[in-house]
Design goal:
By secondary structure, this protein is mainly β. Helix content is 4%, strand content 51%. The protein is built from three helices and 34 strands. The strands form three sheets. It has a nine-stranded parallel sheet, with no helix packed on it. The protein has a six-stranded parallel beta barrel with strand order 3-5-8-11-9-6.
Length: 377
Amino acid sequence: AAGNYGSLNLNHVHFAKTVTIKGGTFSNVVLSDVAGLKLDSATINFVPDNTTTAYSQAIRIFNSFNVTISHSKITGGVAVNGVDPSATALDSTGNVIGLPTARGIEVDFSKSVTLSGNDISTFAKGILFNDAQSLTISGNAIHDLRTTPISGSVLSGLKITGNHTWDSHPWHFSDGGTGDHGDRIHVWTSTKAATGVVISNNLLEQGAGDPLLGIYLDDNGKGLGFTKAIIAHNTIIDATGQGLLLENVSGLVIDNVLQWSGTGDPYHDKPRIQVSSGSHDIQFIGNAADVGLVPTVHDLSFFNETGTVIIGGGLTPAARQSIHFATGDHAAALAAVGVDSFGVATIVGGGHTTVFTGYDLLGHSASVVLHPLNVIV
């Protein structure tokens, strides 16, 4: 209900059936060991003070289950403590005076959480998560930040779909690595291989901000990787050269568009897909982007790609022979095997034909033979 309720703090509350809190204005929300709660159409006005750090949160969800934050407006503010913008290093607060601080929403060690249809603005980071399981981030507008809109570690079942991000202004971003780093979507492995990662239908714009990296699946040298990830139908506009960076990834990359506005130079600023760190068994279908392949990648298939594929000189002959190219009507092929835009598709080289096998989310499969296959040696 309408009204200003200050801080909402719930601990050890489990509802047998989902309870909805609709409307209301809050200064912050903390949910710890909470189950069966939906916060809908609320207003969160987080006002930084001298105790706020870059790691504070407007909404924190910790060790909780079946929680939804939807259709809410979550607004932060700029830091009143920390270092001066002219400083060369941060202090313990992580703040830069006059730049956005804190985190819009943080989800820690929780399961079956949905963040949908929210407007999140004026924070250091937008949405952050730790060890995500069955986390859905969909249809949010995330903008006017200091750095990254969406980031965190994943175990399984992460879906980031239909979000729109723009206008991030990192501190000392172009100062040779001494200031902030930023990505539009940055997901990293935690303690096991990440499964069920879907990143689709997001619009990631530079806007009036700086050209952050685009989508980064980061294995961080752990050797765990992302199994059968799906990166589909995303549009990335400007991204400091790396529009989509894949480390130790397998799965499907389909119908993504990486655009360059022409600012800077094409070598450093035109967004591309970078495939590295042992990535393998990826099917690239219908993407509009240049692609760079570095040593250790193998078993990659490219179908109806627009752009240049640059194969690094360090690839072994066997790895080169496992990289395949084909052309044809991929939309018709998808339809023929009954795969929607979130299916997992596989193009397998077999002599002079390409066998296209699709799996829907229920595990059903079918296949169709496409055009002759060209192998780069």
